[in-house]
UniProtKB/TrEMBL annotation:
It comes from Halorubrum trueperi. Homotetramer. One of its GO terms (cellular component) is cytoplasm. Pfam families: Gp_dh_C (PF02800). The lineage of its organism: Archaea, Methanobacteriati, Methanobacteriota, Stenosarchaea group, Halobacteria. This is Glyceraldehyde-3-phosphate dehydrogenase. D-glyceraldehyde 3-phosphate binds at residues 138-140, 193-194. One of its GO terms (biological process) is glycolytic process.
């Protein structure tokens, strides 16, 4: 049983905590919060042991009636691995604390790649060897790595070009922007996403350009990949459809954007309406010569969560990657196979294309 702590119970941390608690081979020892806000109260209501992320704030928790089980140091003494889910940049500052306890650590994509011994994506990374720390690449890079790895293996990727329309902030981030604009962010090319993908897929040529839009639900990627061979549209659809962490949205489902996707996720019982899979519009997948085009959406709050679970196993056990992925998928319920997929309007043109 791997004893796990989560440092930073925010958007990512609370989801990672739930996912850890669902694993048969992991024990969630506790979670930290920096302040005794509604998130701290919710953690206690969910039955998680709450620790103060910052030593001298214990009084604040006590005053709020949320007496913590201890501080981050206490948590680190009780775990085999810590998952850092603190705000971007704080993870790098926490590194020395984890090192002082000799505690293996997993960091998130808001940190620079050199925060850890290796960057990680369950589908794309090679063996992590004897790494003592891993960094799960960002939500957008996770979405791109899951897509590009099978394409490169099957057909070879000569060059991928991706335009990312990023959500301005998460639904709870009222202070985020833009409010009424679409902003190149960064205005320079490439954005950090292509180089981030290369930390797990070093041999795949990928250029990324990014914008921010005043939406909160999901990121949208417009993808063009020049392949080294000329597969048919049908075979690419089949290849991507066989990937467990890619959900091919059937045309007949009439899901036209992030609003309907999140609605569907909630309707089928996903916790918090989370979509752990990349969501690829099946009818958008088209091959012209060696050029592949498609649109996909990425739920930024959720897609890195299963990757964190597989990163924990990669860091602390000898369980083979495929076994870990299968167990994570099974315990979380990953693999949205739409009941509509075989009866919809999309399959007919595919059959004709074969
Ligand atoms: N929100 C997103 O869309 C995604 C975020 N990430 C990355 O995940 C990491 C966490 O991001 P979010 O969950 O969005 O942040 P968040 O702001 O929602 O949550 C961070 C949590 O850390 C706590 N915290 C503050 N100071 C701390 C400290 N010194 N030590 C420990 N905890 C502290 C806060 O109380 C808060 O609960 C960042 O690296 C981010 O770039 C990665 C993928 C997607
Ligand atoms: O890791 C993320 O995005 P990224 O892949 O664009 O770096 C998360 O969506 C966090 O993005 P934010 O830095 O806008 O909060």
């Amino acid at each position: 049983m791997t004893r796990v702590g989560v440092n930073g119970y925010g958007t990512i941390g609370k989801r990672v905590a739930d996912a850890v608690a669902a694993q048969p081979d992991m024990e969630l020892v506790g979670v930290t919060k920096a302040s005794p806000n509604y998130g701290a109260e919710a953690a206690i209501r969910r039955g998680y042991d709450l620790y103060a992320a910052i030593d001298d704030r214990v009084d604040e928790f006590e005053t709020a009636g949320l007496t913590p089980s201890g501080t981050l140091d206490d948590l680190l003494r009780a775990v085999d691995v810590i998952v850092d889910c603190a705000p971007s940049g704080i993870g790098a500052r926490n590194r020395a604390i984890y090192a002082s306890h000799d505690t293996p650590a997993i960091y998130q994509g808001g940190e620079d790649a050199d925060v850890a011994d290796a960057s990680f994506n369950a589908r794309a990374s090679g063996d992590v060897g004897d790494a003592d720390s891993l960094r799960v690449v960002s939500c957008n890079s996770t979405g791109l790595s899951r897509l590009l790895a099978p394409l490169d293996e099957a057909y070879g990727v000569e060059k991928a070009r991706v335009t990312l329309v990023r959500r301005g902030g998460d639904p709870s981030e009222t202070d985020r922007g833009p409010i009424n604009d679409v902003v190149p962010d960064p205005a320079t090319v490439p954005s950090h996403h292509g180089p981030d993908v290369n930390t797990v897929l070093p041999n795949v040529a990928v250029d990324t350009a990014a914008l921010k839009a005043p939406v909160t639900a999901m990121h949208t990627h417009s993808v063009n990949v020049t392949l080294e061979t000329e597969p048919s549209t049908a075979t690419v659809r089949r290849l991507l459809g066989d990937e467990t962490r890619l959900f091919l949205i059937p045309e007949v489902a009439n899901i036209d954007g992030a609003g309907a996707l999140k609605d569907y996720a909630a309707d089928v019982g996903r916790p918090r309406g989370d979509l752990w899979e990349n969501c690829v519009w099946e009818e958008s997948i088209s091959v012209q010569g060696r050029d592949l085009y498609l649109f996909q959406n990425v739920h930024q709050e959720a897609d890195v969560v299963p990757e964190n679970i597989d990163a924990i196993r990669a860091l602390t056990t000898d369980i083979p990657r495929e076994e870990s992925v299968a167990l994570t998928n099974e315990t979380l319920g990953i693999g949205l196979d739409s009941l509509l997929a075989d009866g919809g309007t999309v399959r007919d043109p595919v059959a004709a294309d074969d």
